[in-house]
């Protein structure tokens, strides 16, 4: 029996839906259903109390059919091999919804980074990169931040890579500090992309962004910048959560104040300018848009039944289970699927890598304009597919993406032209 909470099973069934919807040859599924390479590493760290502790890490590279593999590194106690495999597959489909010259990858280490000292965390980050040296590189596999990793850790990982190679390779990693060749706009990029896709969705639904009520699960890199940019666009953030609790204010939370409060090291639920609610109530509150921006498997069938919003913007990867998806579809709720919704991050990572290759850097406005153009045209491609084939938005996004990969597989001689009834257009 399929485990509907296993992200890898979920990713494979989403792929299968798209292969069937496009009437593609079975070989497309056969080639894409497994990551091409997975590495498991044991990482010893000298702890501050003089003991040595080993942590298990993974890097999964899904396919390099479209270019070098690309994707973030997650530090979390709940990391599993199947999760990392799924996340690497979703990266492939994401890069191809956006038409970027990459395949997908993802890394993860089973660790609670909050339990480590700064020095221990640095050693873990450096050793993780050292143990992957044979399979990573600017034209092979390019890491980036994900849950519980950030620009500072990307800087340390870059330094480790450069030390081993013996020269500077800024394009090895993205999301790094500006001083080391990071791109302006990358920090906010995922949240900016989420906000752009919400704007595109509400326009098509005849709603107004002004006063639109939004509830957000997760207030890390993605949740925070989604909130900030949506408020700049005129929306109201009525509820926000982190892993410990949530807050609610019907008239809209003062987001700049909340951002400052959280940046100072406080918990969302200790913010006194709003009412405290249970963490999972962010899905139930009265609002127009719900933004899951934390982890996988949050919107189950049961949770989906309670959602009152008209739109779900999947800022997190894999936040909705298969049952959750079905309930949302039956309720007529529009889902902006993760592989489209949160693609702003990898898009600006791509811009960062391009700038590193050129050694010439763009102004923030230029980065943001290019991101805007990419997100809007990709949303448009997916929406057209959705209308044309009367499928779930998720299936429409996979159709755009898998259509491109199938075309590349055909051009590489893996499947024949007659297997390709559908041609994907930019
Ligand atoms: N960073 C990026 O550029 C991209 C990230 N993503 C995806 O977005 C999601 C969030 O990533 P990111 O913002 O970078 O990660 P962060 O580590 O910066 O933030 C994660 C946030 O989620 C919260 N959280 C964790 N578990 C729960 C829970 N059970 N309920 C409510 N909140 C919870 C955390 O709370 P606490 O602080 O209490 O732990 C934190 O606020 C992930 O799915 C990631 O894969 C997708 C594309 C790009
Ligand atoms: O910026 C990147 O390269 C990847 C970001 C990421 O991990 C993701 O989109 O899930």
Automatic annotation (TrEMBL):
Q: Which residues form the Glutamate/phenylalanine/leucine/valine/L-tryptophan dehydrogenase C-terminal domain?
A: 183-413
What does the UniProt keyword field contain? NAD, Nucleotide-binding, Oxidoreductase
Domain of life, per lineage: Bacteria
Reply yes or no: does the keyword Nucleotide-binding apply.
Answer: yes
Q: Name one GO biological process term.
A: L-glutamate catabolic process
- Asked whether the keyword NAD is assigned, the reply is yes
- Residues given in the record as NAD(+) binding sites: 190, 221
Mind telling me which Gene3D superfamilies this protein's record contains? Answer: Leucine Dehydrogenase, chain A, domain 1, NAD(P)-binding Rossmann-like Domain
The UniProt entry annotates the active site at: 106
Q: Which residues bind substrate?
A: 70, 94, 349
The molecular function terms in GO held by this entry are:
glutamate dehydrogenase (NAD+) activity; nucleotide binding
Q: InterPro entries attached here?
A: Aminoacid_DH-like_N_sf, Glu/Leu/Phe/Val/Trp_DH, Glu/Leu/Phe/Val/Trp_DH_C, Glu/Leu/Phe/Val/Trp_DH_dimer, Glu/Leu/Phe/Val_DH_AS, Glu_DH, NAD(P)-bd_dom_sf, NAD_bind_Glu_DH
Question: What SUPFAM superfamilies does UniProt report for this protein, alphabetically?
Answer: Aminoacid dehydrogenase-like, N-terminal domain, NAD(P)-binding Rossmann-fold domains
- Identify the SMART domains for this entry: ELFV_dehydrog
Q: Family assignment? A: Belongs to the Glu/Leu/Phe/Val dehydrogenases family.
- Name of the featured protein: Glutamate dehydrogenase
* Record organism: Filobacillus milosensis
* Taxonomic placement: Bacteria, Bacillati, Bacillota, Bacilli, Bacillales
């Amino acid at each position: 029996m399929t485990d509907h909470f296993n992200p890898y099973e979920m990713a494979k069934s989403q792929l299968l839906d798209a292969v069937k919807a496009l009437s593609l040859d079975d070989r497309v599924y056969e080639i894409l259903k497994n990551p091409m390479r997975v590495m498991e590493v044991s990482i010893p760290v000298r702890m501050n109390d003089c003991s040595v502790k080993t942590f298990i890490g993974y890097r999964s590279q899904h396919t390099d059919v479209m270019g070098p593999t690309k994707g973030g590194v997650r530090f979390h106690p709940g990391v599993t091999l199947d999760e990392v495999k799924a996340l690497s597959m979703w990266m492939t489909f994401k890069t191809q919804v956006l038409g970027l010259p990459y395949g997908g990858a993802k890394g993860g280490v089973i660790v609670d980074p909050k339990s480590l000292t700064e020095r221990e965390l640095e050693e873990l980050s450096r050793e993780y990169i050292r143990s992957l040296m044979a399979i990573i590189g600017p034209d092979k596999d390019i890491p980036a931040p994900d849950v519980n990793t950030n620009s500072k850790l990307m800087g340390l990982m870059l330094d480790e890579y450069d030390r081993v190679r013996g020269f500077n390779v800024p394009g090895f990693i993205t999301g790094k500090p500006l001083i080391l060749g990071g791109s302006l706009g990358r920090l906010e990029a995922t949240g900016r992309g989420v906000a752009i896709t919400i704007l595109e969705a509400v326009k098509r639904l005849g709603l107004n962004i002004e006063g639109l009520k939004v509830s957000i699960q997760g207030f890390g890199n993605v949740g925070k910048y989604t909130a900030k940019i949506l408020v700049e666009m005129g929306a109201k953030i009525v509820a926000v959560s982190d892993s410990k609790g949530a807050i609610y204010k019907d008239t809209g939370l003062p987001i700049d104040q909340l951002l400052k409060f959280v940046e100072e090291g406080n918990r969302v639920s200790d913010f006194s300018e709003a009412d405290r609610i249970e963490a999972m109530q962010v899905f139930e509150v009265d609002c127009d848009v719900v933004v899951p921006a934390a982890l996988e498997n949050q919107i189950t069938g049961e949770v989906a039944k309670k959602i009152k919003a008209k739109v779900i913007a999947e800022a997190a990867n894999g936040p909705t289970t298969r049952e959750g998806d079905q309930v949302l579809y039956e309720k007529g709720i529009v889902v902006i699927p993760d592989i489209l919704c949160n693609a702003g991050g990898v898009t600006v990572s791509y811009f960062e890598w391009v700038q590193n290759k050129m050694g010439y850097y763009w102004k923030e406005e230029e980065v943001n304009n290019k991101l805007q153009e990419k997100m809007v045209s990709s949303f448009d491609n997916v929406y057209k597919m959705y209308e044309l084939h009367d499928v779930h938005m998720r299936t429409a996004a996979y159709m755009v993406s898998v259509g491109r990969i199938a075309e590349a597989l055909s051009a590489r001689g893996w499947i024949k032209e007659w297997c390709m009834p559908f041609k994907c257009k930019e």
